[in-house]
Amino acid sequence: MAILVDWDTRLVVQGLTGSEGRFHGLRNRAYGTNLVAGVTPGKGGQDVEGVPVFDTVAAAVGETDANTSMIFVPAPFASDAVYEAVAAGIRTIVCITEGIPAHEMLRLHAYIQGRGVTLVGPNCPGALSPGKANVGIIPAEIFREGGVGLVSRSGTLTYQIGHELTQLGLGNSTIVGIGGDPIVGSSFVDVLTMFEADQQTEQVVMVGEIGGDEEEKAAAFIEAEMSKPVVAYIAGFTAPPGKTMGHAGAIISGSSGTAQAKKNALEAKGVRVGTTPTETAELVAGLARV
Amino acid sequence: MARFGRAGRGRLARALDLYEYQGKELFASFGIPVSEGRLATSPAEARGAARELGCPVVVKAQVLTGGRGKAGGIKLADSPDEAEARAREILGLDIRGHTVHKVWIERASDIAREYYLSITLDRSAKKPLFMFTTEGGVDIEEVAATSPDALVRLHVDPLEGYHPWQGRRLVHDAPVEDPGEQKQIAAIVGKLYRAFTECEAMLCEINPLVVTPQGEVRALDAKFTVDDNALFRLPRIAEMRDRAAADPLEALAREKGVIYVKLDGEVGVLGNGAGLTMSTVDVVTFVGGRPANFCDLGGGGDAQGVVDALEVITRDPQVRSIFFNVFGGITRCDEVARGILQALDQMGIEDPIVVRLDGTNAEEGRRLLEDAARSNVHAEATMLDGARRAVELAGAA
Lengths: 290, 397
Description:
The structure holds two protein chains of two kinds. Helix content of chain A is 36%, strand content 22%.
C-alpha cells in the first residue's frame, strides 16, 4: 500500500533537462521509480538517459500514460507548470521548487480544490515509499520499509527523525514532506487522512514547526478522526519571537503559532510530543519513559 | 530545498517590512489618501520640511517596529523650530532595539474618529482577509479579544478577486453611519485590495484610518509587508529594503546568501535546512546551552557556502564554540567538511568546532576531517551528543 507514490506511479518530471531535475529524476529512477517522461518546452524529441522529453505535459501523458508529476521548474514558472499538469489530467503533483510567491499559491490552492488533485509542496522534499518509489529529493538510503507514516513540514529534519527511527529498527510506509511555505498544496490533515486509510501504516509521526495553525488543526483531526497512534515533534521552541509588523496576524490566528502553543494543543488532544528528535523516535518505538 | 541558484531564503527571512513613509508612498500610488509629508534624516532637514509643509506638523520616528507613540517616537510641532527640536529628540532614540535614523514629517491632521482597516494573507483559510472596525487606535488586539463583534472580517476568494460589494459590506457591518464616510471607506477598501495584490503583500494595515472633522477619510499610518519571493518582479519595492537597518551580522549574511539570525548565547549553531537548524537550536538549549545564532546553510551548501557561514558566525564575539549539524540530502557532507577545513585555513578560527555529519557522503566527510586532524575539530556521531559536546566546550572555553 503506502500513500501518494508506489508501484503504480508513472512519473513525468517537469524540468527534467535542468541540472537538478536531471540529477534527482535519474536518482528516483535508480531507486526503482517508474520514470516515464520529462517535459521541457522547446526540447521535445530529446531524451535524458533514455527518458523521452516532451514539449508539453499533455503530450507526455498521451504518449506514456504518466499519472504523477514532479516539478523542478524555476520559481517564476513553477505555478504555471502545476496548472499545466492539472490540465493534462495528472492527479498527483509533487512540487519541489522553492520560492513561489505566496499570492500565486493562494490562487493555485483555490484552483485545485474540488478537482481531485493532490499537490504536495511547493518547497518540499517530496514523497518516498521505501521499497516502492521515491519522487523527490529525500535520500532513500537512510529509510527502510515498515509501518510508520512520517509527515513533515521540514526536509532535513525529516531525514534526522527517519534516521533515528531506522536506528531503532523501525521502517516507514511513506515519508511525505509537505513543505514549509505559508500556503502549501497538502496540509497535515490531508496527509493524516491518507495515512489513516492506508493499510500498511500502523502509526504516524508528524513533524511540525513554528508558524501557522496547521498543527493545531491536525490535533483536532487526530482526536476526532484517527484510530492510529500519532507522535509529534515541533521545531522552534527556542526561536526568538519574530518581529511581526502590525496586528492583523495576531488577531486572525487566535493562536500564537509558537512551538509551545502547538505542543499544548497536541497534548490536549492526547498526542505525545517528543522534546528532541531522539526522544520522538523513542516514543514511536515505545522505548521512552513517558 | 531546491533553489536553482538564487539567493537563499528560509522560513525566517521571507518578508520585507516597509517603513511607514514607504507604505504611504505605495498607498498614495494606489489613490489611498494620505497626508502630505517629507522624510528627514537630520534636525535641520526636519525644520526645512516643516517650513515647506506648513505647521503644525507631526514628527514620526521611522522604525520597523510598533509602539512608537508610547516610546516617545511621535511628537507634534507647532513651528519649524519646534520640529527641529522634536526631530533632535527622536533621531537616535532606541525603540524596542531599533535606532531611529529617519523621521517622517507630515502635516498634522485634526481627528474626529479613528478606524482600523487591514488586509492580510490568512494562512489558515488560505485566502486574503479584510478586517475593519470603527474602534481604531493602538489597542486593536484588545478590541479583537474583548468585543470580537466590533471587528468585521471578510475573506476574498483569490480566484474571484475583489468586488465592490465587499467594501460596502464592511462599512455596513461595522457600522459606519455617515454616507460620505461610507463611500470614501468603501473606495479605500477596493484600492487597498489592489495595493495588496499588485504589491504581493502579506499585510497592508491602516491603523488608524482617520476621519477629520470635515469628514475626510485618510490613512494616518501604514504597515506594509511584502512577500520576499515576489520581489524579483517588484524592483521598485525591492529597492526599498533598508540594508543599514538590519543587524550588521544579518546584513553580512544576506549579502553572502546565508540565512542567519543573531541570538544571545555562546554556542554557534549551523545546520542545513530551516527545520533541522531550528531543532538544533532547541536541542542545544535543552542540554543546557545558549545558542549564539540560527544559521541555515540551506539546501545546497557547497564548500564556499560553509566558509561564508563560518565567517558570519565567528564575527560574533560572544561565540565560544560552534556546532555543525548536517544531515546530507542535496547537501553533500564531503563538501561541508572541505568548507570547514578551508575556513580554518583562511580565517584561523580557534573556537572549538563540533561536527556531526550524516546522510549523503557522510563517511567521506568524516574521513576528510579525521585525516586533517585539527585540534579544535571534534567529531560526534549523533545530534544529541554533538549538542552536549558543543555546550561543554563553550563552558570550558
